[in-house]
Amino acid sequence: MSSDIDLYNKIIEECMAFLFITRDSDLQKDACDKLDSLMRDIMVSKNAAIILEDDNLANLFLGFECVCMALRFELCMWLYLKKSEPEKAWDCLVTAQTAAEAAASALTQTEDSQAA
C-alpha cells in the first residue's frame, strides 16, 4: 500500500507542473488524462480500504481523490481561459476550490483519527 501512495504522490506532483496558463495545452490535456486514470486507481484502493474497514486509509484515499479532482479542474480552468470561455473557467475554478476543501477535510479526518 505504501508503494501505491508513493506512486500517487509522484503522479500528482508531475501533474502540478502544468498548473500555469503558460504551459502547452496539449500537455495540460495529457495531465488531465493522467489524473483521470489516477482517480480510477485511487477509487479501487479506497474501495479496498472500505472493505477492510480501515477508515483512516479510506479517508486518505478520499483525500487523494479530491486532490486529483481539484488539480484536474484547475487544469480545465486554464484550458477554458485559453479558449476564451471565462464562464466555464469560472465553474472549473469553483469546483477546484470545493474539491480542495473536501481534500483538506478528508485528510483532517485521517489526522484526527490517528491522534485519538
Could you walk me through the main structural features you see in this protein, from its secondary elements to its overall organization?
With 116 residues, the protein is mainly α. It has one domain (27-110). It has helices at 2-16, 25-51, 55-82, 86-115. The longest helix has 30 residues, at 86-115. It starts with a helix and ends with a helix.
Structure in a nutshell:
With 116 residues, the protein is mainly alpha-helical.
| Radius of gyration computed on alpha carbons | 15 Å
* Total domains: 1
The tally of strands reads 0
Instruction: List low-pLDDT spans.
Output: none
Q: Approximately what portion of the residues adopt beta-strand conformation?
A: under 5%
Question: Can you tag this structure with a few keywords?
Answer:
116 residues, 4 helices, elongated, mainly alpha, 0% strand
What's the structural blueprint in terms of helices and strands?
Blueprint: H1 2-16, H2 25-51, H3 55-82, H4 86-115
